[in-house]
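Catalogue entry: protein

Sequence with per-residue tokens
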Amino acid sequence: MRPMPNRNLANRPLTEPSLKRLAIDAPQREQRLAAHEAAMAAEQEGYADPVNGMFVMTAKALAAKGFCCDSGCRHCPYED
């Protein structure tokens, strides 16, 4: 039997990722956070990572799903 998905948002702003997913010393952390904030402000579901070009979903888009999909998303709003 699969565990129930986490449906409780973490106690932090959507603009602040979990340190488990984006460490303080992560390469180009500030550039990645700026791209994330710009995508959320523009109501986009995600953005192209400025370092590796991969598509990354925003915390706002992930929160709209209503639960953690357990895929290791960088901006997962459910991860503490």
Notes: Residues 1-80 form one domain. Strands lie at 46-48, 55-57. The chain has two helices and two strands. The CA atoms of residues 9 and 43 lie 19 Å apart.
